[in-house]
Amino acid sequence: MAVLQRLSHAAGRLNAAPASVNAASQVAEVLQSVRRSEHSEPPCWVFLGPPGVGKGTYSSRIAEIMGVPHIAAGDLVRNEIGLQTSVGLQAAAKVRNGELLSDTLMFQLLQNRLDRGRRQGESGFLLDGFPRTLAQAQTLTLFSDVHLAVNLHVRKEVLIEKCLGRRVCSHCRKNYNVANINIPASASQPAIQMPPLEAPPECQPFLETRSDDNLVTVQRRLEVYQEEAQPVENFFKREGLLLDFEITAGIPQTLPRLQAALQPYHWDAHISAQAGEAAMHA
Ligand SMILES: [Zn+2]
């Protein structure tokens, strides 16, 4: 409606002053914005990254900023089980038997979640923890448009230190981190500063380390992740969709930097880049 009003207003000015270059360019501008809105799509992004990198935190904050649903693989399963849908019941049976969910089932869960969201006016998505395997990544690009795969990483030694520094309060179940990371910049690498996430005095006596946050398990977890994630990263790279982002500081410093890095990929820029490309090929 607003577009039509702007178009007729611009056209009216064009009629009134046929020689006016200004009015003509205004019409062109409006037509361009109409074309943009016809082709515009909200972001369909995936977030990749190893356990402990803070992927859940960053992806949910970015999703909130962009106004798209944050869909975490774990929630996908839990929500559908909670809703007792037929797919949810199938998933629940598998989870009970300790079986892995098939890709077909995962995509059915995702489809259900997206359909439900769309009925409530949602559009686009930000996937967190999915796709996990190459096969899932390939299927996802057939299942939906994917505009960007954001690959969050933290230098390995830092990630290990962060995982080992995790503490949970056995009283209120809140998570803290005692790791105090302060590595100066080298010729080839940026400085890393991640202050601890300190527990308040009332939680201090109840801090516990999870039994699987020991060096052997953490290293093994990262190896397992890397084996599975490398082909996924390579796939998105070949598709020209991978954006590598290194985390070198805490959340308050990193979030604005991540937001700035993602700005050029926001759908508006994405569409104008496509329009520019089309113009070049015309
Ligand atoms: Zn506590």
UniProtKB/TrEMBL annotation:
Alphabetic keyword roster: Kinase, Nucleotide-binding, Transferase
Keyword Lipid biosynthesis: no
Catalytic activity annotation: AMP + ATP = 2 ADP
InterPro entries: Adenyl_kin_sub (IPR006259), Adenylat/UMP-CMP_kin (IPR000850), Adenylat_kinase_CS (IPR033690), P-loop_NTPase (IPR027417)
EC class name: transferase
E.C. no: 2.7.4.3
HAMAP family: Adenylate_kinase_Adk
Family: Belongs to the adenylate kinase family.
Cross-referenced PANTHER family: NUCLEOTIDE KINASE (PTHR23359)
Name the UniProt record assigns to this protein: adenylate kinase
Originating species: Symbiochloris irregularis
